[in-house]
Amino acid sequence: MKIVRSSTQEGKALIAKLESRKSANFTKVAPVVEHILRDVKKSGDAALRNYACKWDGLAPRASLRVNEREMEAAWKQTPQDLRRALEHAAANIRKFAEWQKPLEWMREIEPGVRVGQLVRPLDSVGCYIPGGRFPLPSTLLMTVIPAQVAGVQRIAVCSPNPAQVTLAAAKMLGVTEFYRVGGTQAIAAMAYGTKSIARVAKIVGPGNSYVTAAKQKVFVGGDCLIDMLAGPTEACIVGDRIPARAVASDLVAQAEHDPETSCVFITTKSLLADEVSALCLSLAKEDPMAKSSLQKNGAIIIARNEKESIKLANRIASEHLTVESIAQLKSIRNAGSIFIGRFSAQPFGDYITGPNHTLPTGGLARERGGLSVLDFLKIITVQELSQVGAESLVHDGARLAVEEGLLGHVDAIRARLDLA
Q: Is 319 an annotated catalytic residue?
């Protein structure tokens, strides 16, 4: 891994590059994505099946939809220890989402004026579960469970050539609508609707550049809401007292996701920097993906002091951020998810602690946090005025309407006095 000092020109250039990174560049995939979106929108199931057979491993006569018997069989074939692990993770994810869910309320903001909020779920969501090099049942848990806690009535899952464990997890959660399609074609089906897959109100979940570009297109086109544009995994660790073994293992763990993963360690200790670099090389030697990622994008920054370390972490705004102590939280403004101390391995958050692992990348952590139950809810505001309340607001309300030249507003406000 490259080791730089924050005070040097090389260090400043690297930090600026990390700060200005984007989740993805869709220029190369855009023509293909736009063609597939148009094709599925126009031809529906015929195009969807064509692409699913070509790229998703769908047999020519196989159903696009996974039947519940298949999911039941997958669950029965799952080893007991894996079942327990899935159930444990699901319980924590569900509990955390329940804690996150906002409450409905009504309060008197001044005499005779009551305001409040209703909390209502979206009608439908589509959960995209990647099916690339590794099965990702954890992503199914992280997307479906918050939607269930929110109260979404219809949850459709799309995953190309789904693994047995992913189908087993779907059965465990009670998923009834599961389609064996992926890529741009799955996003198109969920956004536009086909005979087999009805359109959804919002699409959530990570994916490759084709999936992400497709999500961007359907959102910009006004066809479907999305959660966020997810890019390659990111890890940042800040500290001088977290053991080198813990730092290196977390960096290698995240680096094995993708050759474009961004892994950064920030410390004030030169000897610790050297030790972490050597350990990363040793731990990644049998993992070509992690080794390539660390060599290409891994970096260790030697900061002048702890204050600068935290400042750099905020500038980088990483998806995953590890700090040494809870006292440092007050200084953190930008991160997708935060891990505290030597025992808080970042992969715990990928699977089982409860907070969502679908997190902002490419600097998006400056603007939003990770996927949560809030992504599946609408907050509807409520206002109720009595005669006393209307009379107390009529003068100032009408004055503001006059200033804006909206005389109909003025009349509607003043008309309430005639009802007394």
A: yes
